[in-house]
Design goal:
CATH class: Alpha Beta
Order of helices and strands: HEHEHEHEHEHEHEHEH
Shape: globular
Helix content: 25-40%
Structural class: alpha/beta
Bound molecules: pyridoxal-5'-phosphate
Radius of gyration: 17 Å
CATH superfamily: Alanine racemase
Number of domains: 1
Number of helices: 9
């Protein structure tokens, strides 16, 4: 279970947001590529439901939640303050709880989840689209579709697939993520998929340099 962060302050988060935004702009410019802004998604798993208005006050507009039940509770209480995505491990039996509320699901990685998406398409928020999570390094026990299985998997999707997401192997050094981010970009480009959801507190600058369209940030934003 993730620990909630206590003592969140809107001013502090606002400063962090501005700093991260500048770093992302610089990373994009330096890479000489990439049109369009990199969206900053704030990971909401660290934030108690009652504290969400602090994030809104700080200027956070896009949240990514990890757990279906928490998503339901948070949307019920503060739904209109934010745009909502789902970034957590997608359990097929919870798909129906998620689809009414979210813009994007970043983490689709099983055929059973695709089947449930098909089954509950009618209840989905209009425009709901998905990203496929890719396990680039072939790590055991980690969610994600293998690159070689990607096309067959996408062919089964009952809702639009608009991008790819990855969590690279854990490392202390942000530079270690670069090859995985570049590999994800290549897979997306080959398939004309627009969104690249990659980069967390640890390596979002490298991710932006490699073409991320959405970075998912928790720790660095709140402290
Ligand atoms: C929590 C989480 C993040 C944010 O991680 P930080 O290291 O706190 O920035 C990003 N992506 C996913 C899928 C997460 O669960």
């Amino acid at each position: 279970m993730v620990e909630l962060i206590a003592g969140l302050r809107a001013e502090r988060i606002h400063e962090n947001l501005e700093r991260i935004r500048e770093e992302l702009t610089r990373a994009r410019a330096g890479a000489g590529g990439g049109s369009g802004e990199v969206e900053i998604l704030a990971a909401s798993k660290y934030v108690a439901c009652r504290d969400l208005p602090i994030l809104a006050e700080a200027g956070v507009r896009l949240l990514g939640e990890n757990r279906a039940q928490d998503l339901e509770e948070k949307v019920a209480a503060h739904g209109s303050l934010f745009e909502w995505d789902f970034i957590g491990q997608l359990q097929s039996r919870r798909v129906r709880l998620i689809v009414p509320h979210v813009r994007l699901i970043h983490s689709v990685a099983s055929e059973s989840a695709l089947r449930e998406l098909g089954r509950h398409r009618e209840q989905a928020r209009p425009g709901l689209a998905i990203l496929i999570e890719v396990n680039l390094a072939g790590e055991q026990g980690k969610a994600g579709i293998a690159p070689e299985d990607l096309d067959a998997f996408i062919a089964l999707a009952p809702v639009p697939v608009v991008g790819l997401m990855t969590m690279p192997p854990l490392s202390e050094r942000p530079e270690d993520s670069r090859r995985w981010f570049a590999a994800l970009r290549a897979l997306a480009e080959d398939r004309d998929l627009h969104h690249l959801s990659m980069g967390t507190s640890q390596d979002y600058v490298v991710a932006a340099e490699e073409g991320a369209t959405i970075v998912r940030i928790g720790t660095n934003l709140y402290h």
